[in-house]
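Re: [ENG-882] Designed sequences occasionally contain unexpected residues at chain ends

Forwarding the minimal case from QA. Structure tokens:
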């Protein structure tokens, strides 16, 4: 049997990730002819077809997907080896690179990432924020160790990855004391006609909130929509409107933004996921994050969508 040519494997891996020889050529700084020739030699050595052309793109065959799954693990180990040698220690590298989807509440992201700072071996956290599809592309080529998101990995993306549910919770509604005094009544009826700040259309919780308003026959006055959750809360802090946030961080939201919780519901839930390229989570920072999320942040959170509960608006 031929010895595996790792240079050929690397060329194959980059082509699989970029979807074309031309884009792989730009990334690798070699000619398309060189990559094409190397891929042919690699396929001949393996005795199987790895790609098939669909329009202008190269799509993986079943054999190609199998090879890619092994290539992912091989290059993850290679990266870990480089980091370990650079750090002068035999363990994992001390830099932990996390992606945070822009729809993810930043207070939740902080609570999830914070355990990585308390490991026996300190981790330097590098956070990247952006759209989920862009972060997953970086995850696929190992520019990130983990992506935190408010949804599992989309099935339409040509990225190999695994979604790990960290937890879920209901939502609570918040507002400044002055704003609450002008909208009296029992919760959730006091939300009817009240100025409301909503997350943008990309947020998974947005349609859930709208369906809940409809079921409860609540018609809030929408005064703002925000893709950035931190900006939404800044408007809420200024008294521009009421807003919803995960119940799991209710105390933190009230303390940080000077607002009060007026009620909560488990009929609207938010889920939070860690997305990785590995089925089994082994990176010490990732293990710390998932363990703390499941044992502390979301521990005991109801999941049955039971009836609304809360206080009366002041």
């Amino acid at each position: 049997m031929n010895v595996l040519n790792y240079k050929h494997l690397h060329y194959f891996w980059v082509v699989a990730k970029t979807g074309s020889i031309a884009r792989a050529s730009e990334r690798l700084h070699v000619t398309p002819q060189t990559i094409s020739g190397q891929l042919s030699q690699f396929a001949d050595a393996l005795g199987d077809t790895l790609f098939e052309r669909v329009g202008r793109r190269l799509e993986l065959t079943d054999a190609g997907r199998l090879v890619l799954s092994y290539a992912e693990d091989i290059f993850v180990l290679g990266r870990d080896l480089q980091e370990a040698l650079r750090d002068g220690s035999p363990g994992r590298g001390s830099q932990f690179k996390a992606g945070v989807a822009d729809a993810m509440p930043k207070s939740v992201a902080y609570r999830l990432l914070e355990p990585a700072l308390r490991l026996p071996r300190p981790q330097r956290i590098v956070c990247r924020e952006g759209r989920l599809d862009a972060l997953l592309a970086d995850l696929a080529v190992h520019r990130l160790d983990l992506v935190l998101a408010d949804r599992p990995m989309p099935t339409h993306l040509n990225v190999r990855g695994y979604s790990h549910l960290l937890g879920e919770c209901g939502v609570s509604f918040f507002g400044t004391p002055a704003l609450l005094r002008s909208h009296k009544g029992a919760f959730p009826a006091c939300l009817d006609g009240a100025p409301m700040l909503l997350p943008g259309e990309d947020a998974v919780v947005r349609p859930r909130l709208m369906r809940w308003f409809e079921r409860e026959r609540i018609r809030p006055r929408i005064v703002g929509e925000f893709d950035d959750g931190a900006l939404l809360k800044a408007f809420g802090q200024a008294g521009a409107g009421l807003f919803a946030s995960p119940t799991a961080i209710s105390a933190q939201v009230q303390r940080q933004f000077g607002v009060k919780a007026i009620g909560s519901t488990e009929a609207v839930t938010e889920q939070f996921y860690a997305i990785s390229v590995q089925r089994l989570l082994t990176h010490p920072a990732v293990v710390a994050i998932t363990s703390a999320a499941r044992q502390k942040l979301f521990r005991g959170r109801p999941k049955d969508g039971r009836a609304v509960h809360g206080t009366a608006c002041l």
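QA comment: On inspection the terminal residues look reasonable. Residues 168-269+304-310 form a domain with the D-Maltodextrin-Binding Protein; domain 2 fold (CATH 3.40.190.290). Proposing we downgrade this to a documentation issue.
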